[in-house]
Amino acid sequence: MSAERFSLRGKTAIVTGAAGLLGREHCEALGEAGASVVVTDLDAAACERVALALQEKDIRALAVPADITDRAAIEQVRDRALERFGAIDVSVHNAAVDDKFDPGADLEASRFESYSLDRWRRSLEVNVTGTFLCCQVFGSDMARRGRGSIVNVASTYAVVAPDQSIYRAPDGTQRFFKSAAYPVSKSAVVALSRYLATYWGGQGVRVNSLSPGGVQAGQDADFVASYSRRTPMGRMAQRDEYRGSVVFLASEASSYLTGFNLVVDGGWTAW
Questions:
Q1: What local confidence, expressed as pLDDT, does residue 104 receive?
Q2: Which of 35, 61, 90, 252 could form a disulfide with 54 if both were Cys (CB 3.0 to 4.6 A apart)?
């Protein structure tokens, strides 16, 4: 296959959650493949920093902060993208809420039996409704033009249940529990992707999901060791190891792929 199939020259890509750990990597990967990148995140200042960093690498970038649970804000992202670049060819929906608990102190709050309804609703609102709205607004424009690629970022926990043992201290004490909200919401992202793949299949819009495994990012050494033992490749991912997957799903290299959940997890879900 020609490397040209992976090129995104002349294309415009929107990335939500663009200021996050993987969001920045997605932006850079798409930009290096030739795309103009619309950088979207709730944090306006962080959006500007990411866009500036891309521009310093000669990547065309536009920062448009937005709350993905607000349809009007997403429509503004769409309108700004069209005004600046003329089209939306790719949208990577990476923004999400992943519960953070203070190890030990928040043990009871993390238990399923006492997990708060407010946390549950917030996860569903951002991870599911936010992804739904982005697909609706950006995808409708793609369908109208008859082409486009949507990449919804899910998780390995959309495929398998959390292994609660990796959240234990070396002495066996449970530090916290991974909540039900994250796997439930990410499973919904995969289901939504499959639904839209069939709904828009005849209109030239491909919709896939990407399920990344855990990324090493300064976590406690005991957690990294536990995660690594649970993974056939024996380690967590590096933050740049999803770049190729995003470009593949966004580009013509995957032109006959839709409704697929691409799991990139070092073998985590293989056993």
A1: 73
A2: 61
Q: What is the mean pLDDT of the chain?
A: 97
Q: Which amino acid is at 141?
A: D
Looking at 182, 195, 199, 227, which residue is catalytic?
Answer: 182
CATH code matching the domain that covers 3-264, chosen among 3.40.50.300, 1.20.1250.20, 3.40.50.720, 2.60.120.10: 3.40.50.720
Q: How many CA atoms lie within 13 A of 240 on its CB side?
A: 3
Q: Is 182 a catalytic residue?
A: yes
Answer yes or no: are the C-beta atoms of 35 and 11 closer than 8 Å.
yes
- pLDDT digits 0-9 by tens, 125-142: 999 999 999 999 999 999
Domain ranges of the chain: 3-264
